[in-house]
Design goal:
Elements (H helix, E strand, L loop, with lengths): L1 H49 L10 H6 L3 H9 L2 H19 L10
């Protein structure tokens, strides 16, 4: 009887060891995936920081607004374009924030 108990304990120890090995390999693969993603994001961040956007006017809203003719600015003000943009941007931000809540998808598939 003792032999079978010893064999059962040895078998359980081997199963526990193999389970631990499988979990370790799974963690290593998960860490490798996140490491690759982190390196890709770091590379993209370094590329973006190396680019010079100062002369392009892409990020300068005042310069873009100054480029619109005065008549067009007056027309946009009369029809309430700024209010419209504010409502649309607010709606998009609210939808994005609601998407962060688990189990709330609001029609997104």
């Amino acid at each position: 009887m003792q032999f079978f108990e010893w064999l059962q304990r040895a078998f359980q120890a081997i199963i526990a060891f193999l389970t631990s090995c499988v979990n370790t390999v799974a963690d290593m693969l998960k860490d490798l995936f996140f490491w690759v993603i982190d390196m890709a994001m770091s590379f993209c961040a370094s590329l973006l920081s190396a680019m010079d956007f100062a002369g392009t006017g892409l990020l300068d809203v005042a310069q873009v607004y100054a480029g619109i003719p005065q008549e067009m600015r007056d027309f946009l003000h009369v029809i309430g374009f700024s209010n419209c943009v504010m409502v649309v941007v607010s709606a998009v931000l609210i939808k994005i924030l609601l998407q962060l809540i688990p189990f709330v998808r609001l029609g997104a598939k």
